[in-house]
């Protein structure tokens, strides 16, 4: 009997042990070994490596047995050249101790072992810092902004560096890790172009009134000098007049087009503001944009929507081909459109619109206090917490948050007749609008955060790509029904809702107004 009890107890203990999950330690990714050559090598004191407080640096020198690795003159020369010329990529050579490293290089033959070890560590540390900045930027957008939803870019700098080192391919590493997107390459080109311009010393242009063709204004002297400087106009600056002639008119239109302004030749406040940007300020703008592009993903989806917020544009790109371009309206500087990378999920025809808290507080409540029929005129119904309709006369203006405010579907709905949904933390989406005249404006920073799209039904037909169920005629019938209908988007489209204010095109500099005032502040932080 005792044997039976013993066996029973043993089986229980074994079964309990089996039920417990086995803890398997996380496997550390093996760092490849550095292949050292026969050049001068010295041992490095680990305390010196540890003083940099960099886990990456410790792992790097573990791979070399804590010996110096940069004995090869060709490899050192290449690194020093990259760091010295990092300004051509919008980076700051001072961030990588470029001058100090060059001084050490000049004295390398006479360096004692301990100084050679220090030089070796400094080369590695600063080169890895350079590569990291080149891959994912110097700053973290999540620490700068609350409305930038970008996934952090992971970068194994040791893996990239050691593989390039061992395979003698250091000369391609910097090129390989940079973004491959066309706007990034156009920005690098823009920086190259602007560096060809001389320093400018044109005075500030002041004009309180609009200047039109044939007008006479003293401001036109500096306007013409600026147009000559930026090569929007040809000629010499020693015979300029105060008359707004035809030649200047055409040059102004060219300048306006490059800056996303209405190319009508009328010199108003927007044009004056753009003309008053100095070369240095434009260069800083380009550098700020390069930093932003390094925050964005390098791996574009096969099909995607890309929205450039300051350009008020949406491009549909499929298999590397732009298939549709649309004008958009974006958020104001007070109610910014957030920066998002997401995936399109569904199209909603005839959407209802629930008034969001910000618009309720800032727009609806003040209007309702003035006129209780305000919401009824906009076809918006008030519901209480039980879902019952509330008469506007019975609405409690002291507790506006106790209600839901829902606008019925229709052509005049605030979302228009269609919206496109995608996962995000900001409750924003793409949609039609009842203010369709806004798309004709040059400044389209007018929404409450969502992106309004011009001719959205054509966009829906294109992305649903179903001639049987969602032809133009079928979509028109759905819209005419005024019934809300959700349709899943079966083709996978990524959404990139991003922000850039500078690039180049056909060797011309292109700029857009920095509608959210991000450029100057970002540049200042980059040079801190």
From TrEMBL:
InterPro entries per record: LD-transpeptidase_YkuD-like, LD_TPept_cat_dom, LD_TPept_scaffold_dom, Peptidoglycan-bd-like, PGBD-like_sf, PGBDSf, Transpep_catalytic_dom
Listed pathway(s) = Cell wall biogenesis; peptidoglycan biosynthesis
Pfam families for the chain: PG_binding_1 (PF01471), Scaffold (PF20142), YkuD (PF03734)
Provide the L,D-TPase catalytic domain boundaries: 303-478
Active site residues according to the UniProt entry: 431 (proton donor/acceptor), 450 (nucleophile)
**A Gene Ontology biological process term:** regulation of cell shape
Q: Span of the secretion signal?
A: none
Print the keywords alphabetically: Cell shape, Cell wall biogenesis/degradation, Peptidoglycan synthesis, Transferase
Q: GO molecular-function annotation terms?
A: carboxypeptidase activity; transferase activity
Q: Which family does it belong to?
A: Belongs to the YkuD family.
Recorded protein name is: Peptidoglycan-binding protein
Q: Supply the source organism for this entry.
A: Flavobacterium reichenbachii
């Amino acid at each position: 009997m005792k044997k039976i009890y013993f066996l029973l107890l043993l089986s229980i203990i074994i079964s309990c042990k089996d039920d417990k999950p086995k803890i398997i330690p996380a496997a550390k990714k093996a760092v490849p070994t550095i292949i050292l050559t026969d050049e001068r090598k010295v041992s490095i004191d680990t305390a010196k490596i540890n003083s940099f407080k960099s886990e990456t640096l410790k792992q790097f020198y573990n791979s070399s047995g804590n010996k110096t690795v940069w004995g090869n003159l060709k490899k050192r020369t290449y690194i020093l050249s990259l760091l010295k010329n990092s300004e051509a990529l919008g980076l700051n050579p001072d961030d990588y101790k470029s001058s100090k490293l060059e001084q050490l290089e000049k004295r390398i033959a006479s360096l004692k072992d301990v100084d050679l070890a220090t030089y070796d560590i400094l080369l590695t540390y600063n080169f890895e810092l350079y590569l990291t900045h080149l891959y994912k930027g110097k700053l973290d957008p999540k620490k700068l902004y609350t409305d930038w939803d970008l996934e952090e870019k992971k970068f194994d700098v040791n893996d990239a560096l050691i593989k390039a080192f061992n395979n003698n391919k250091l000369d391609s590493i910097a090129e390989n890790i940079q973004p491959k997107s066309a706007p990034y390459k156009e920005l690098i080109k823009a920086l190259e172009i602007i560096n060809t311009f001389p320093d400018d010393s044109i005075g500030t242009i002041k004009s309180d009134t609009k200047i039109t063709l044939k007008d006479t204004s003293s401001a036109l002297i500096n306007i013409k000098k600026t147009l000559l400087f930026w090569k929007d106009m040809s000629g010499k600056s020693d015979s300029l007049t105060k008359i707004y002639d035809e030649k200047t008119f055409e040059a102004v239109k060219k300048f306006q087009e490059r800056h996303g302004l209405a190319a009508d030749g009328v010199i108003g406040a927007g044009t004056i503001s753009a003309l008053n940007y100095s070369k240095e300020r434009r260069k800083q703008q380009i550098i700020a944009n390069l930093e932003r592009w390094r925050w964005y993903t390098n791996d574009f989806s096969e099909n995607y929507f890309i929205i450039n917020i300051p350009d008020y544009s949406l491009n549909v790109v499929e298999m590397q081909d732009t298939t549709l371009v649309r004008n958009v309206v974006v958020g104001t500087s007070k109610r910014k459109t957030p920066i998002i990378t997401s995936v399109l999920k569904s199209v909603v025809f005839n959407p209802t619109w629930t008034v969001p808290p910000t618009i309720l507080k800032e727009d609806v409540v003040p209007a309702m206090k003035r006129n209780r029929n305000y919401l009824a005129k906009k076809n918006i119904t008030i519901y209480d917490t039980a879902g019952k309709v509330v008469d506007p006369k019975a609405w409690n203006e002291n507790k506006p948050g106790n209600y839901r405010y829902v606008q019925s579907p229709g052509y005049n709905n605030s979302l228009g007749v269609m919206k496109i949904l995608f996962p995000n933390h900001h409750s924003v989406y793409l949609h039609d609008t009842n203010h369709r005249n806004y798309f004709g404006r040059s400044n389209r920073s007018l929404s409450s955060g969502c992106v309004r799209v011009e001719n959205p039904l054509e966009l829906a037909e294109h992305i649903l790509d179903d001639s049987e169920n969602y032809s133009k005629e079928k979509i028109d019938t759905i819209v005419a029904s005024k019934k809300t209908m959700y349709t899943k988007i079966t083709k996978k489209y990524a959404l990139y809702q991003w922000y850039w204010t500078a690039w180049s095109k056909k060797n011309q500099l292109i700029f857009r107004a920095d509608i959210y005032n991000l450029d100057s502040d970002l540049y200042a932080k980059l040079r801190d």
